[in-house]
Amino acid sequence: MPTPFSHLAVAQRLLRDPSLPEAQRVVLAQHRPAFLLGSIAADARVEAGAPRSATHFYHYVQEMDDKPPWRIMMDAHPSLWTPDDAAHEAFIAGYVAHLAMDEVWSRRMVAPYFVGGGWGDQRQRFVMLHVILIVLDERDERTLEPWQAGSLAEAAPYAWLPFLSDAALRDWRDLIHAQICPGGHSQTLEIFGSRAGKTPEQLRALLDSEDDLHAKLWQHVPRPYLSQVEREMYAHCVSQTRAYLSRQTVWP
Hints:
By secondary structure, this protein is an all-alpha fold.
């Protein structure tokens, strides 16, 4: 799934998007720390040792429900429709944006190209899935504005989720903050390398070779299609964030 840097880049963009009603943007802007933490919180499951289904509300090994995962989350935890305060509301809005982004990525990219793709073998597709995410991760990290690190560090969760502890959220906050703060160092290559069975050096060599990237990835997953999926991901983030903040409890 898209990395924390990619989710933070989308959160940064949402804060300025005029397609969100001004009143909603004001809430998010006034509570940026909570919104930023919400936008990456679903992946705190890694630190907490929780399965993906516990924080993303779908399984990799099963076909996704037609209902958006964030609405499945709301069905399971209806108290999230009535947050405790505006900071809590901004946090849940960020969480909804995260799940919306991951939903489109899963439906439109992972399922057809990396799970059901007819190119390469399963192992190659697994490695290339990590590679394409790193490509986006490194691009998006460069777009993060300096205020993000300090703002994220200020996030102070207080019983914001019934399925992830405050301690897990704080640990995840601190791990990402350490990478984006001044002097920080991205751990994406190390983390993804360990998952994909590659050293950071091997991943770096592949990422730096346009010929290898074309032969092993881009000829199978066309760049224009990736751009199209990214547009769909962002549009879905906007619509679902707006739906939550407008309390559109009925679906569809």
